[in-house]
Amino acid sequence: MTTSPRIALIHALKHSIAPIEAAFAQAWPEARLMNLLDDSLSADLARDGKLGDAMTERFLALGDYAAATGANAILFTCSAFGPCIEAVARAHAPMPVLKPNEAMIERAVTMGKRIGLLSTFPPTLASMPPEFPASVQIVPKLAEGALAALDRGDRTTHDRLIVEASKDLRDCDVIALAQFSIASSAPLVAEATGRPVVTTPDSAVEKLKGLLEAMP
User: What's the pTM?
Assistant: First the structure.
């Protein structure tokens, strides 16, 4: 694989773009990024409360579009759509198609058996725990109101609500931040809880780089 592959980043929340671009800039600046944003995906999931065939079709269309632009890999950045992303991965194999959280999950399970899962988007706490192996215990925690604060542009309140929620996870071995949009809060959570914290963007970039470097 060339040193500057084209990576399609597909987002369901506009807040995911900056954290993943920052992670690439730090760990893999040679990668050429393209951003596809459809924030109606998260709005429609929040409204419907479940993933259906129509949602999967929308994801397949996004995957087809990304592949048609010449992307070498696709990274989805919203953690509430696991089954839809798996359908895209099947459709485009052997191209690497990553769920946002799979690399972080792989890292977290090496760090302890009791994993705190902190999220600001309620559907994530329904869809993501089954992606962890049965050998670990997941302690889900919603930072109520934090995403609404971020939508208003109030990052201070967003971070404060995340820190407050994280204190309920102090008895966990490790705390996993479930969304790209809260990755920047990792140092605050680590300080408030005294626990190690893993984030999705850094883990995802590292895994994607390894997969593409291993391809002929």
Answer: 0.87
d(CA 200, CA 17): 12
The rounded distance, in Å, linking the Cα atoms of 200 and 23 is: 10
Element holding 88 (H helix, E strand): helix 82-92
pLDDT tens string 44-82: 998 998 999 999 999 999 999 999 999 999 999 988 899
The DSSP output letter for 67 is H
DSSP-derived letter for residue 184 is G
What's the confidence (pLDDT) of residue 2? 53
For the chain, give the mean pLDDT: 94
Q: Extract the tokens encoding 141.
A: 């925690």
For residue 94, is the peptide bond before it cis, meaning its omega torsion is within 30 degrees of 0?
yes
Instruction: Catalogue the long-range contacts made by 43-50 (C-beta closer than 8 Å, 24 or more residues apart).
Output: 45/12, 45/80, 45/81, 45/123, 46/121, 46/122, 46/123, 49/123
